[in-house]
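Please predict the structure of the following assembly.
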Amino acid sequence: MKKYNIAVIPGDGIGIEVMKEGIKVLNFLENIEFTFDWYDWGCEYYLKHGKMMDDDGLEKLKKYDAILLGAVGFPGVEDHISLRGLLLKIRQGFNQYINLRPVRLLDERDCPLKNKDVQDIDMIFVRENTEGEYAGVGGIQREGTDDEVAIQTSIFTKRNTKKVMKYAFELAKKRNKFNKVTSVTKSNALNYSMVFWDKVFEETAKEYERIQKESFHVDATAMYMLQKPETFDVIVTSNLFGDILTDLGASLQGGLGFAAGANINPEREYPSMFEPVHGSAPEIAGKGLANPIAMIWSVKMMLDFLGHEDLGDQVMKGIERALEDREKLTPDLGGKGTTSQTGDIICEYMKK
Ligand code: NAI
Ligand code: MG
């Protein structure tokens, strides 16, 4: 039997609640074994220790087959501290330069657009995940004076941008849709970084003549995602643009409760990390109201990445079938159930 060691970082708020359901699903699977080591890193940890994770946190995480993360951030700790001190540290430290985010509608009742059904909303984002606008380079000078200056610099390297583009084209080749890659740019205004982005996209596209390519500015992309979502297949974006567009994508799927993600180091030099797109949702935390589907779908992405696509499919079927009868599911899905009940129902349907 295959055995995997998983590092579990539930984090804060609803991250803790949805994580329990992700683990429930993994423990439910047969013919595969997981050991879980839980790390209590997050905002509460920060308030006690003055840091979001242990100093040797990356060293500790290195040995695992994969990492599961819930969400980080809570009132009382500034968001840039919680995000940079944990999530971005792991993404960047483990060179998880691909952020995969599927935007797929499972049930047309959840789509806010009229006359769109499940075939129309099925795209996947390949978001650059370690540099770009989130590289963390910049500074503040003359702080606290009227002459205060803030600088935040984007970093785009040829090596990384090229790898991200290639990943997107390879994915388009594998996916059973239009074999198309859409590049999201803003080269009209960002005359260095995005002109460079376009150049690398064009260069990479030449290696994939059978794959269709198109390129839109980010503002137009946002509009087309609503007007003609059915025309998208694989979408490749920089870090910031991908972050924003995938929340829009989440709403096409029925909300953040559906949006799953994977932070991947394709070379497998370091563990990859699987986490829902949503945050810690403090206003509903601790009430059992959080939809665990995004977390469970992220668990499915982990199974796929570990080479168990059959089990990934089993989890996905459980999610899809559970959506048929909403009564006992969480309120965002129209039910009166709790996070934990929703997890139980998904497990039930995984059997069938
Ligand atoms: P959020 O994703 O936590 O919440 C946005 C909205 O979606 C809220 O109305 C929330 O109730 C709802 N929502 C989110 N997930 C849900 C779920 N599973 N089921 C039902 N409803 C759900 O984003 P927000 O409010 O901008 O940020 C809250 C905190 O989370 C902040 O501290 C922020 O920095 C952090 N954050 C962390 C992320 C991460 O760890 N990856 C990502 C985004 C935000
Ligand atoms: Mg986001």
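Residues 14, 18, 71-73, 79, 83, 87, 256-257, 275, 278-284, 290-291, 294, 332 surround NAI (ligand 1) (CB under 6 Å). The longest strand covers residues 2-11.
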